[in-house]
Amino acid sequence: MTVTCIIRYQIDPFQRDAFEQYAKNWGRIIPRCGGHMIGYFLPHEGTNDIAWGLIAFDSLAAYESYRARLKADPEARENFNMAQTKRLIIREERNFVEVVEGTLGIPNADAN
What we know:
The chain is of the alpha+beta class. 39% of the residues lie in helices and 29% in strands. It is built from three helices and four strands; from the N terminus they run βαββααβ. It has helices at 16-33, 60-72, 74-86; strands at 3-11, 36-41, 50-57, 89-97.
């Protein structure tokens, strides 16, 4: 993957379970629409209203194609609508990053 989209969500902490379902729904939708799902992450310790989604793409052009497929996908539209109706997401930010070669997926030195 050349480009990773990091989505930072400020969520309603009282709707954490609903956001979890929203994220799980993307687990089916995103790969079908062409994104390489890295994962969604919920707050665990510390700040209780920040969640993350990480999706990789071969290029920015691949991301643009993915966005078009996402907009046309009925289940994706339904998931977006559910989040808006329930007001799960207070704020959303997107950043695009690239991995520094030789730094991703390095196993722990203590791993057996």
